[in-house]
Amino acid sequence: MNRNFKVVFSKARGALMVVNEATSSVQAKGTKTVIAAAVAALSLGAGVASAAQTFTDVTLDAGDSLTVTSKDGTSVYAPAGTVTGTTNATSDNTNKTFAATGDTLDTGAKVYLNGGELVLTGTTTDAVVKADDAANNKTTSGTITLNSVASAGKGTEVSYSAIEGGTFSKLDLNLNVFNAATGGTAGNVSIGNVANDLKIKEGTLKTGTIEGSSTAANKVSGTATITGKNLEFGVATGTVGDNKEPSATNPGSAYDFDNAADVKLDVTAAETVKFNKGTITNAGTMTVTGESGVFVGNQDLTVGKQVTIANTGDLIFTDTTKVDFNADYTATAGHLVIKSAANTIYGNITADSLKFGAANTDLAKETNQVVITATNSGKNTIKYGSTVDVKALTVEDAATTINGTLKAAATAVTDKTTAGLTVVDTIGTTGKKQYAAVSLGDITVGSAASGAQGNTSFTLTNQAENAVEASSLTVVKNSTTANTFALNAGKFSVGKLTNQGKVTLTDGEEFTLTGEGANASGAEITLASSKEYASLVVAEGASLQNQGDITGTDNTKGKIKVSGTLTNLPKIEAVGGNKAVDAGTITAAAVEVDGVLSTALDTATYDVAETTINTAGELQTSLNAILDPTNATATTPKDALEIANTINLEGKITTAAGAEVQYYIVNATDGAFTIKEADKTFNTVQVKAGAFATDDADVTLSVLEVKETGTATVDSGTLNVTTLKTAATTNTVTVEDGTLATSLTGLGLKYTDSGFAPADATTAGAGKVANKSIVLKTSSLLDLDLGSVTEVTSAQLSGLTGLVSDDTKGLIDIGATKIKDVEAKIEGGKIAYTELSSIAGVTNDTIKSVTVTKVGESISGKDAIYGTIEQEDEAVASKDFTISDLSLTLTGTGNLVSYTNTTDGKKVPTLSTIKFSTADSELVTTGEGAQIGQVGDSDQNGSLYVKSGDLTANGSVTINSLEVESGAKLSIADDKDGNGYAVTTGDASNEATALISGELAAANSDVTFGSTAMASYDADGAVSSFGYVNKVTGKLAAKTLTLKGDTLVAQGGTVEAGKLDATGKTVFVGDSASAGSLSVGELTAGSIYADPTWKEDGSAAAVSLVAVKKAAATGASVEADRSSIVSVGTNDVAAGTAAFAKTGFTLAKTDAAKKEYSINTKTVNSVVYAEGLQYAGNVHAGNDNANVSIGANSMLLIDATKVDATGEKSVFVQGVSMAENSVLYVDNVKNGDKISLTATTQRDSIKADLVHEGDLLMGANEDKFTDGVLEFGMHDKADVVDKLGNVAGLDAIYGMYENGENVGNTNAQFFRDLMSSQTSSAYDSAAGEWNFQTLRTTLNDVAAIGATTGAQAVTMDAVNQMADTVAARTSILTQRAQGVNVWGDVNGGRFEGKKVMDGAGYSSDIYAGTLGADYQFANGAVLGAALTIGTADTDSKGTTAKTSMDSDLVGFSVYGSKTFADIWNVAGDIGYLQASNDVTESGYGFGDFSEDVNAFTLGVRGEVLTKAGSVNIVPHLGLRYTRLSTDSVKAGFNTEIDDQNIFQMPVGVTVSADFETSGWTIAPKFDLSVVPTFGDKDADLKLGITGVSASDDLSVRVINSNPVQATLGVSATNGAWGFGLNYKLGVGSDDRMNNSFNANVRYAF
To answer: Which one, of 399, 401, 356, 396, lies nearest residue 381 by Cα?
Structure first.
C-alpha cells in the first residue's frame, strides 16, 4: 500500500502540482481534507474503480486550481490541490473532493474563487465564476486564466462569457493568445459578457502569448478581450475635508493592466469603462472602447486621477460620447490616442509630440506620441489644473479649448487643414477666477515641403485674460494658395514673425510682436476695424519689416501701436533677372508711435488717416516735396516733407541722416499737422490744405506760410514765428488761449512817422499778413516785438489791429513800446478806465501793471491785462464788478478789485464782488499777496485762473471753473465766525471745472466741484481716458469736499478733506503714470479707487496713499488696487505706510496667473491697513466684491494695538472675505488677543495666509479664523519642544510671548524675528516649512555667546601664564643670589580650544610682559612681587555667533618660597588679573559689547629635588584656586554669568642639568605635567531679555579637564645676570592646543 500510494501520489503531483507529501499541502487544510485527497489519489493509482461525480459548485481555495481542457469535444477537468464542492447527487449533499479523472462540472455550475485559479485552455465553460455576494458577506478573490492553444499554425479561440456580472474584490486575469505566422490563424481569448456589469476592485489583468507564437514582424496577432456592459477597475482613494486630503481609512485599491508586447488587448464596454486606481502598463496594442456600437445616454470613459500609465506600445481610449482623462502621462515611446466627441484632459501630459486631430489609421506611421481626436464635430478640453507640455504640437482641427496650461516648444498647422485653438479662463467652485496659460513656441502655419498646396488656416480664439505666447510665428506661402493665421479674440504675443501668407486680426484683439518680424512681399496683415484700440502692436525692443501689406482695408479702419520699430520697406527695383519688388504698404485709421516708424509718406505707400508720434516716438522718412520750386515742373531735389494726412507730433520726424526735418508742406484736406506738448524748432511750415496746429507746445518757426485752403491754430503754449505769411483773410492763424509771437518785420510791416506801413520788398525776413487773418480768441496774445520802436500813438495802432479779425477777443502785446498819449494820462501809476478805450485790444508793459480807476460795474469788450482795478467811490456796503465775456488778467498785489466805501463820510477801501456775465468770462491773477472779495454768484458763470503768485479770496467762490497753476496758491479766507467761505464750480459735463496743479488752501471751507464728467472705460473695464474729469495734481485742503463727477488725484497731488461726498462717483488716486494721496475724515458717499501703475520690471513706480477715518455703511467704498496703500479707521495716510514698512513685504506686481503668490514672493499688489473700531464702509483690495473683500496677492494689515483686542468691538461692520493667497498680516499681536474682523456673522470667508510675529510659538484658533475671529494663543510648549528640542533660551522667549511682553519690545527684536516665519532665517518660504536644525543652532549659539567669546577661557589662560611665570621664580631649580633679584619675562603664544565649549571654541593670541622683584633671605626663603601687562586677540570657532575679542590684561602677584634641606621646596603665590574685553559679534549683527572678567588666584606648590649623577630630577605637586567673575553681557540675550571657582592640581616632573663653560652656567630643562581641573568648569549663564520677566539657564563648558603640558627650556647664568628661553606645549581634549614662548632676564644685586 505504501508503494502504491507513492506511485499514485507521484502522478497526482505531476498533474495537479499541489500536494508535496501525504500529510501536507501548499496551503494546509483540515486533516480530513488531506486524508480524503490521499485516499482519492490512492484509489486512482491503484486502479480502484470509483464513480464519476458531477459538481454543481466548486470552491477554489488558495493553492487550488481547476484546469479545463477539451478532448474530442468533451471538457476535461484537471484539479490541483484539493478542489471541493457539491455534487448533484440527491442522496448526498455533503462536501466532496473533485477528483482528477472523471469528475465534471454540471451545466451552469458555480465556481467560487477563494484564492484559487480557474484555467481555461483551448476551450470554454458555462460554469459561472461568482462575484461578491454582499448579502451574505462573501467576497471573491482569485485568478482566471484563459489560454489559447494552437495546432499546425492554427490557433483556437477561447471565450469565457459565463463570468457573473457584479463586483469582484480581487480578480487576477491572465489572457494568453496565440500569434500565428503569416497565413495562419491567430488564437484569441476573451472574457466577459456585454450584457453584464463588471467591477473589479483589485488585481492585475495580464496578457501574454502561448508557447509557439510567432514573433515575426508580419505575424497575425491574437487579441485578448475583456468586455461588459459597464467596466470598472480599481477603487479610488477616498478623500476627507474641503482640501480633499487622502483618506487614511479608505485607501482604495488598485487594479493593474499589464499588456505584453505583440498582444492586442481590447477593453470594451457597451456603456462605460472606468479606471479608478492602478497602473496601466502597455507594451503591445491596448484599445479601450466605451459605447461600442450602442449609444446609452451620455456615459463617460474615465481614466482616474490615481491611475499611472507606463506605455511603450499603442494605447487607445475611444468612445462615442466622451473621454475624461484624469491621469498624468509621460510619453517615452509608443502612442497614446484619445478619441471621442468630447475629450476632457484633467491630468498632465508630457510628450515629445502631440497632435490635435485624427491619428493615422496605421499607427505605425503616426509620428506623434499623443493624438487627441474630437469626433463628430466634438471638442477637446484641457481643464484648469492640467498641464500639457510637449516639444512638438500639431494642430489639425479647431476642436480644442484650453482652460488650463498648454506649453509647446513648437506648433505646426499642417498643409490643407483648417485648425484652431480656443483659450478660456474659468471660474472655480469658490468663485475664484482660474487663469488659462498657453505658450505655443515656434508656430508654423502651412508646409514649405515640396507639393504642399496651402489653404491652411489657424485661428486662435483667446478669451482669457492673459496673452497667448509664442516664440515665433511663421505663415508659409505656397505656390497656389496663401496660408492664414487669424487672431479671432484676445491677446497674442509672439517673439518673431515671418509672414509670407496672411495674418488676420479681429476687433478688440491685440497681436503683439516682441522680437523681430517680417511681412514679406505679397503677404498681408489685416487689421481689426477698430481705430480706438490697436490690434497690431510692435512692442518696445521689437522690429517689424514690412514689404507686404498691413491694412485695415481703408484708412478709416484699424490701428497700429509702435513701441519698437516698424519699417515700411521701399520698392526694390529689378536687378539682373530678378523682378522688382513693390514697396510695403500701410493702410490704417491710426498709427501711434512710441518707438520708431520708418516709412515714406506718399499715400500709395502710407495711407493712414491719423499718425501720432508720442514723446519718445520717431518718424523716420524721406523728403518727398519741393518747397516753392522755381520751376513748376521740377521734381528734384526734394527739400521738404509733404504731409497728406493728420500727424500729431510730440516726438520727432527725421530723415535717414538722423536730422529732424525742417521744412514741411501741410497738404492734408480735412487733416492737420499738430505739434502737441513739445518744444520744437523748424525752419518752414507751409500750409496748403488742412491745418497746422500747436497744442500746449512751444514751437519756433522761421517761416509760417498759410495759403490756398490752409489754416493755422495755436491752442495754449506759444508759437514763435520769424516770418508770417497769410495769403488771404480766409487763411487764418487762430490763437486759442495761447500766444503767437513775432516781430514787426515778421508781419511784413515797418514803422514810419505816420504809423505802420508795409515793409520794403527787399527787407530780409519780411512776412506778409492779410488783413483780419489773425484771430485772437479769449485769453490769447499776439506778442509783437516792435524792435527799435520805443513809442507810438494810439491812432497809429490801427496798422496793427487791422491784421486781426473783427471778432478778436485777445490782445496785441507790444511789450516795452510805450503808447504816447496813454502814458500822458497815467498819474501815480493810475489811469482812468475811459482813457484806455482808444487802445482796446492792445496792451504793453505799462498797462499790464497800471491801476485802472473809475471803472464802472462791469468791464466788457476785448481782453485786458491790468495791475489792479479801482471802481468809483460809493457809499455802499458792497459793490459788484462784472467781467463780461472777456479774460481779465490782474498782475498786482494787495486788493485787486476794490472801491472806496464813503458811507458816513469815511473812506474805507473795500473789496468788490466779482461776477461774470458768461461761462467764458475769466479772471486771471499772477501777483504775490493778492486779495479779492467774493468771486461769482449763483449763476456760476466765468472762470478763476490763479496763474502764478498767491491769491486770497475773502468771500465765496462760485464759478464755472477754477484752475490753480503749478507753483501758485489760492487761499480761502474765513468769515467772521471762523468758517471758511465756500468754493463751488460749475456742472459742465464736457469740461473739467477744477484743475488744481498748485494749491487750494480751503481747510475751513466747503468745496464743491460740480463737473459731472466721468472717466471712460475700455472693454476690459479699465480706465481708458480721464477726459474732462476734475484733476488735482497739486494740493487741496477742504473741510468738506463734494464731487458731482469723477476726480483724478495724480502726479503727486494730495487732497485732505474732513468730509467727502462723491455720491455715485469715483475719486481716482493715481493713474497709469503717477500716484497721488487722499486723506478723508468721513466718506459719506462715493468710491475711492487707488490705482497707479507698475514699472516695466513690476516694481512700484509710485505708491498711491489713501486714508479714510470713517465711512457710511452704504454707498461708500474705497479700493486699493495696484501699488497702493489704503488706510481705514484713520485719516493719516502715513499710518498705513509706516505699518507696511514693518511687514517685510514690498509692493510689486504679483501675478497669480503666473503662480506667483505673496506668501512666497514677499510682494503684494495692494494693501489695506485698518485701525480703530467698526469701520462701516466697503473696502476692497484687488477685487471689487461687496462689503470688505481682499483679493489674491493683496494684504489686509492690522495693528493689534490700534484695534479692540478683546473681541468686543469689530474692526469692520461689513462682512469680510479674503481670497485664497491673500495675506492677513496682524502686527503687534500678543497672547490672548482676540480680534473680530466683522460685526457680521459669517463662515468660511477668510481664506487668507495669516502672518503675524511669533507664529512658531503662538497662533490663531483655526476654526474661528475662517469665520473672521482671530483668537491668539500659545502653542503647547510640549509640542514646541517636541519639534525644536529643549534649546537654550526657549523659556525666556516662550515666556515673553506667553506674558504678552513681545509687543513693542525692540530689545527682543532679534528673537521676535527669529520666531516669525516671515522674518526668520530658519524658515524656508519656498518650501513653506521651518528648518528646526537652523533654529536650534541659532538659539544655542546666541545663548552661549557669553561663553563662546572665550572671555573666561582666555582669562584663565592668562592667569595660568602669569602663574607659570611666578612659579619659575620660586622653583628649587631657579638660579638666584642672596639678596635682591630683579627680573623680567616676556610671554607670547597661541591658545586654542576649538571644541572646548560644547562643540564651539576659541583661538587666542596672548602676549604679556611681567616685571618682578624678589628678595632671597639667608635661610633660603624668597619673597617677591610682580606686575603683568598684556593683550589678547581672540576669535570664536565652531559657532554661528561669530565673535572677535580684543583684551587688555593687567595682573599683580605676590609670591614666596622656602627650601628645606636643599631638597624640599614649598612655594605659594596670590594674584589678581583683570581682563578688559571688547567684543564684536558679526554672525547675527549684535555688534559691539564688552565682557570684562576679573580673576583672583591663589596657588601652592611642593617640589623634591633628587639627583641622578649630574641630572636633577624634581617631581612636583601643586594646587591652584582661581575665582572668575564675569560682567553681564548684552548680545541677543541679557546674560548674567555666575562666578566660577576653579581648582587645578598640576602634577609633574622636571628634569634639568647644569653645565659650566667659559664662566657661564648653562641649565637645560624639560618638564612634563598633567593638570587635572575640577570645580566650576562650566560657565553658568542666566539668559534674559530686557522687558521680559521670564528667563532661562544654560551651562557651557569653558575650561578643559586634564590638559597635558610639556616645557622645554634653557637658562644661562654669568655672574649677576641670568637669561632664559622656554617653549611650552599644552594639549588636551576638544582640540586643545597651546603653543607659548617665554624669554626672561634677571639681575641679582
So the answer is: 401
